[in-house]
Every structure is written in C-alpha cells, then in structure tokens.
What does this fold into?
Amino acid sequence: MEKTLHLVSLGCNKNLVDSEVMLGRLQDYTLTDDASSADVLIVNTCGFIGAAKEESLDTIFSLHEQRKKDSLLVVSGCLTQRYKEELQKELQEVDLFTGVGDYDKIDEIIRKKTNTFSNSTYLINDEQRVITGSNHHTYIKLSEGCNQTCSFCAIPGFKGKLHSRGLESIKKELIRLVSQGFYDFSFISQDSSSYLRDLDVKDGLIDLIDMAEEIDGVKSARILYLYPTTTTDKLIQRIINSKVFHNYFDMPIQHINDAMLKRMKRGANRKRILEQLKMMREANDSFLRTGFIVGHPKESEEEFEELCDSVEKFDFDRVSIFAYSDEEDTLAYTMEDKIQKSVIDERIKKLNKIVEEKVEKSLRKEIGHEITIVTEGESSEHEFLIGAKKLSWDRDIDGEILINDSQIGKLEISQCYKAQVTQLAGDKLLATVTKSA
Ligand code: SF4
It folds into this structure.
C-alpha cells in the first residue's frame, strides 16, 4: 500500500536541512500537500522566541484538526527539545515526540512508535537529504550548537555547545550535490564565523572557502550568520578575494550602542563593528544583511535613537528586525527594566520606516545595470512572469526579480542569465534577459 507523508518545516534554514534529512530517511513514503489524506504528518518545530513557538503550536493543532483517523502526528525540532516534559504531558493531540537529536532515526521512531530524545544534537554527516524548494540551490550546514552567550538567546540551552562538521564531510556532500545539478550554495549555522573553533582552528571558514573553490561545479556561494567577534579582517578579505563566494555579508549585530552590546553580551563594540561594516561595504558589488533586536531590557530612548541614527547613516541592503522576546532560561529574562510592549511596537515602527527606505535605495541601485540572475520558476506576481533572484542574493529572503522580457527567447528554470534591470515596481525589480551568463 502506498504510504503518504505530509511534512511542515518551520523556523530557519537550519531546520529545513534537518527536515530534508528526515525526508531522506522516509523515501518509501509519497509526499503529499494534503494533510487530510496523509498517513504520517510531521511538524519540525521552531522554539527560540514567542512568535515562533506560537506558530509551531498553531501548526500542530491545525494539522490535528485536518488529519484522518489512524494517521500518525509526529512533532520534532527545537520546541519539543526545549519543552519535552511539558509537551509530552500536555499535547494529547500528538502521537510521537522527538527533539533535535534524532532526525536520522525518524524512520525507526515511526516504525517503533517510540518517543526519542537523544542527549546530543544531531549534525548531518553523510546522510542523503531530499532537497526541497530548488533544483540549483541548497543550504549546507557547517555546525550545530553555539558557544556564544548572548543575553536574550535560548538556543545554546537546547542546541548545546558548538559542534563543527568536518571539512571532509562537507566536501563529500558538495561533490554529491554538484553531481545532482546543484551549483549555488548557502553555508549556514548558528555562528558560522566560529566554524572549527571547537577544533582549535581560528579561521575555519577560510579553509572551507579554499576547499569549496577546488570543487568543479560549485559556481556560486555565500556564508550566512557571521558573528562579529569571530569575523576577522582576514576572513572578510578572503571572501572578497574569492571567485566563487559572493561579497555577501550576513552579520546580525543586534544593536550598535556600546552599553547595549555589553548588556546583550555580544562581545564586540560599536567601533569594531563599524570597522567591519566599512570593509564589507567597500567590497565590489557587496551585499550587507543584518538583524537588530528592539526593546531588550534597559534599552533607553537615547540608545534606541543611536541605533536608528546608525541605520540611517549606513547603507544596509537588508535588515531583519526582531521584537525582544522574554525567554525564560536566558540572562535577559532575569534583568529588570523590561520595556513595555507598546514602546517596543513604537520603536519597531520607527526603525522599520528607516529600513524600508534603505531597502528601496538598495534595490534602486540595480536599475540600469546588467546583472547576473538565476531563474527560479513562475513568479509570485503572475504566471506569465518568471521569478528570479540576483545570483549573489540568498534564496527566499533577499527578494524576487520579475523577468518580463527576453531578448533570447524561451528561458530555462534554474539557469543563470545576464539581465538588464529596467525598473522598480513596489518592492520588486523588473528585468529583461539579454543573454546567457
Ligand atoms: S550567536 Fe548568540 S544569538 Fe546566535 S545562536 Fe548563538 S547565542 Fe544565540
């Protein structure tokens, strides 16, 4: 009898890689988008802040509502890892629980119908994934866990200490993926610039870049989640010198005021961060993405104004803004002078406005230029428009380019082309393909 599987992967791209590992273990199932007909339903949850936890619970309840009799509802991931006792007691809707340690054993967990929580955090090694969402791009996990101690973050509490993946393991996976047609890669972890530091290697990312550049077929790459104190000038320069890695710099800085950075236990100060950002910005065709937390305990109006002022003055291309989430088992949770929600909302509204102007400026910069794009499929706007992204951008988070004309006739999907950017329509660029890249 054909067995069907419905899987929902929530949260970050690191969680997506783990979901793909589970799909790799469950290849004897047929995937279905229809939750009401699935024999097995899996929710790979996210559990690091309030909003994400809520989304995970809502998804579990909604799938329970939809599912057919005698189906199996399995919940995995960060939410179950963080609250394993409470959830196993309270969530009667769920049939099987597992956390972040057993993705490569999901087939066994389902066969034996046993809740499973290994002590260590699972880190992909040689397992075959079922890549989702693209035929040319995928995420490559560098490590699991984190040695940083940011005041607001619960992740080290349930994902554990930094545990880097060996270069050989990554090399093997890259070679395998290239043989399957993939050529664009995003290297990810919680703290990528600390890669291999747990193995006493200072600039492990430089070794990674050297290795990846040697692999024929790795045409395009970027590194996400750099951490300020472990991002050296040598690393930034190595990225700039690379022919394969784009001058794509994703470094969440969370704040810019020195007193706030200290309270957040970020380790880096304003002067050093601005030095790094300046070096990155001066690189050719560079792309800068960062993230800020608004409303951390004790954040004064002046400190917030300093943040707004620095975002106003510096040209980031993309910025994620998070409202501070009061997470038990974090240092910030024990702090006094919590900021009222209404004040946080006001501050986010103000910072968002500045960021929108910066993003628009970043997009307008492309107009009139010929850039390298990669086609991704039918656009989100209209079936007659092809959706694409600038090759250097990351997938799904940096925006969509609408291809509304081609000077070379029919276009293939997952292919690179040169395109002339003609205009900005809302938050989307329009472009005409001129030739193959
Ligand atoms: S770097 Fe900081 S914010 Fe990121 S996972 Fe580690 S502790 Fe959390």
